[in-house]
Design a protein that fits this description.
mainly beta, five-stranded mixed beta sheet, 22-stranded antiparallel beta barrel, globular, Ferric-citrate TonB-dependent receptor
Length: 691
């Protein structure tokens, strides 16, 4: 029985009269428990907490995407440590390696250095650098830094991005959104979700359409130089035929158009924001992707997963070949690509042993039709066909052999057959050497992975890994070049990782330190005729670190920060008589940093800000004879961005400001006459209605 003192009894009576519940000194006061939510990653083919993987992975959940006001993959990548970006998404990379690698061959390239998957469907390499992918109705984005070849295969030498959109549920959900912004930005989005057959079949449909005029003008043509348009439709069906089987079908359609992201320059000084070319530059994509995923839970430990995927891409483009307002030379492109794959794997999860093993079969085809026209007359027409067949066996095991110690082993056998044919059906340029080609390339590689992790405490994990990265060989596809084959390239990466949780899991910290040896590096160089060729010409190395932290200060205030350092160098690289040894990679900023915060007021208003710093980097080398005498560099830049959100009933209003202080900066210093520049101050608002 509770015994009250005279004073406490009087307080109780008075409080009761006022409708207040008193709290006495000997009673425990309930405290609000706030913690960061656990993040589950799936891109390594093992579903586990981000705190339990040694891979350097940055994860943005749908909640993070909402709080940051991100609209595209570019927005997500721009604040990710270890990832550099350029305004307009025309180039980005991980750990100083561009998405297309250093053997850049234009739109026809089938070998990238970074793989991007959306709902298990591989995305076309060129699509990822011409127009940013929308993150409307996206559940999670996982950015893996460093080679992922053991799990992802041929195009993951520098890393991988795994995007997962929201799956259907049996709970009805409907939303529509409209948005407006500077430079003619406008768009509309919608989603619908719900049960089609109760407890058996659910569907989800998401639509997003965006247009904008862009911030670059072309006075010569009297029009916008970089108008952007994207139309995205995605449909998903979830079928549950039994308690042990899940079937997920996904269809997506992407229709995108982008222009030119360069401006004219006078002696290297940009003309903000004008370009004076007399040919309209455009890149158009029509991509359809379909994926079927089956998960069969055989028992409490074993799961059979089958993923069938096909991506079909039509790409067309026109570029001003001479890049002047007077001469009429245009490069015209028509490409068709098909990327199909079948993967089957068995996953297992015992008390002290987890992992998977599986098989992969893939086929990639590409039809190339590139023309060079002078004053409307075709003077060169390159036609080609590339067929690549890939086969792989792979697996990984994580074994806790004693308490707190886990051994990680992985292996992938990858076999590839590449048949490339190139013909010139029109040639009035009288090329000195016939560049036509008919090449057959075969390669087989083993890609091991080995690691060891230790649970220092319940909330702190450290570990080391070594793994081999790989990108397959191929044939130089650039027009007018000698279409010669080149060999695979390999990396060996040694990595130290630490995962920490503090303050009752209100503070999460991650760190990775790495060193990479790169052999037989594929690089592009200009020969004595000025044409771009590809060769295995470099022995290089990379070293660096990535750090990130998230802190839930209160239930209303969260802060985050990240930083990375990347030191790159060609150990031995001589190309066309020029010695580049000792120089750092192009497009590889040493320092990247970001910091941000979000605060939600009692009335529901949320405001956020983030500050992103990106160091300068080499855009091109200046040579004289056999010596590098100088460098063309991009500008270092610090960008301040703002966003806000306010909900009133079923309506949610959002707004954003990017590049608040209207910084002007060069993102790629191509030459004295043409440079790429970053976007100026932009802003926009949106209204969303859910019912």
């Amino acid at each position: 029985m509770q015994v009250f003192s005279k004073n406490s009894l009087a307080l109780a009576v008075a409080s009761s009269a006022l409708g207040i519940t008193p709290v006495f000194a000997d009673e425990e006061v309930p405290q609000e428990v706030i913690q960061l939510e656990e993040v589950i990653v799936t891109g390594e083919k093992i579903q586990r907490s981000q705190d339990r993987t040694l891979s350097s992975v940055a994860v943005s959940t749908s909640e993070d995407i909402r709080k940051e006001g991100a609209k595209t993959l570019q927005d997500v990548l721009s604040g990710t440590p270890g990832v550099y970006t350029q305004s307009g998404n025309e180039n980005w990379g991980i750990r100083g390696v561009p998405i297309q690698g250093f053997d850049e061959q234009g739109a026809a390239a089938l070998n990238g250095a970074i793989s991007v998957y959306v709902d298990d469907a591989i995305q076309s390499n060129r699509l990822l650098t011409a127009n940013p992918l929308s993150v409307w109705d996206v559940e999670q984005v996982e950015v893996y830094r460093g080679a992922q070849s053991t799990t992802q295969g041929r195009n993951s030498l520098a890393g991988a991005v795994v995007m997962k959109t929201k799956d259907p549920t049996f709970t009805p959900e409907f939303a529509v959104q409209g948005n407006l912004g500077r430079y003619g930005e406008k768009g509309s989005s919608a989603l619908a979700n719900g049960a089609l057959i109760e407890d058996r079949l659910a569907g989800r449909l998401a639509v997003d359409y965006q247009t904008e005029d862009g911030y670059i003008n072309n006075p010569t043509l009297g029009d916008d130089a970089n108008p952007l348009r994207s139309a995205n439709v995605r449909g998903k069906l979830l079928f549950l035929p039994s308690d042990d089987v899940d079937v997920l079908l996904t269809f997506s359609h992407n229709d995108q158009r982008a222009g030119l992201n360069a401006v004219d320059a006078n002696d290297g000084v940009p003309d903000y924001f004008n370009v004076y070319e007399n040919t309209e530059t455009y890149h158009k994509f029509d991509q359809n992707a379909v994926t079927g995923k089956l998960d069969w839970y055989l028992d409490g430990e074993w799961t059979l997963t089958s993923i069938s995927s096909a991506t079909l891409v039509d790409y067309s483009a026109a570029l001003d070949f001479d890049r002047t307002p007077t001469t009429s030379q245009a490069a015209l492109r028509e490409h068709e690509q098909t990327l199909a794959s079948q993967e089957v794997r068995l996953g297992y999860d015992y008390e002290n042993l987890t992992g998977f093993f599986g098989a992969y079969l893939g086929r990639t085809t590409s039809d190339i039709d590139d023309k060079l026209a002078v004053s409307g007359t075709t003077v060169m027409n390159e036609k080609g066909k590339v067929e690549i067949d890939s086969y792989a066996l792979f697996g990984e095991a994580n074994w806790e052999f004693v308490n707190d110690w886990t051994l990680i082993t992985g292996l992938r056998w990858d076999h590839e057959e590449n048949h490339t044919r190139i013909d010139y059906t029109v040639d009035t340029l009288n090329l000195a050497t016939d560049p036509s080609a008919n090449e057959n390339i075969t390669s087989s590689v083993l890609l091991p992975k080995l690691g060891l992790s230790y649970d220092v405490t319940e909330n702190h994990l450290v570990g080391v890994t070594w793994q081999r990265g790989y990108r397959s060989g191929g044939v130089n596809l650039r027009s007018l070049a000698l279409h010669t084959p080149y060999d695979p390239e390999f990396t060996d990466t040694y990595e130290l990782a630490w995962r920490g949780n503090w303050l009752n899991r209100r503070l999460r910290t991650n760190a990775n330190i790495y060193y990479t040896d790169w052999t037989d590096q594929q690089v592009t160089f200009r020969d004595s005729s000025g044409n771009r060729q590809v060769a295995n010409a470099a022995d290089s190395r990379m070293a660096g670190a990535e750090l990130s932290a998230q802190y839930l200060v209160t239930s209303q205030l969260s802060v985050h920060a990240g930083a990375s350092y990347s030191d790159t160098k060609y150990n031995s690289f001589v190309s066309d008589g020029v010695d580049y040894s000792g120089h750092e990679f192009m497009f590889a900023p040493k320092y990247l940093a970001s910091v941000g915060a979000n605060y939600t007021f009692d009335n529901g208003l949320m405001i956020g800000t983030n500050v992103v710093y990106q160091d300068d980097s080499i855009s091109n080398f200046i040579t004289s004879g056999s010596t590098v005498v100088g460098e063309r560099r991009s500008d270092p830049v610090t960008l301040v961005n703002l966003n806000a959100e306010y909900a009133v009933g079923s309506m949610t209003f959002t707004g954003y400001v990017k590049n608040l202080f209207n910084e002007r900066y060069v993102t790629a210093n191509q030459s004295d006459t043409v440079v790429d520049v970053g976007a100026p101050l932009t802003f926009g608002v949106a209204a969303r209605y859910e019912f």
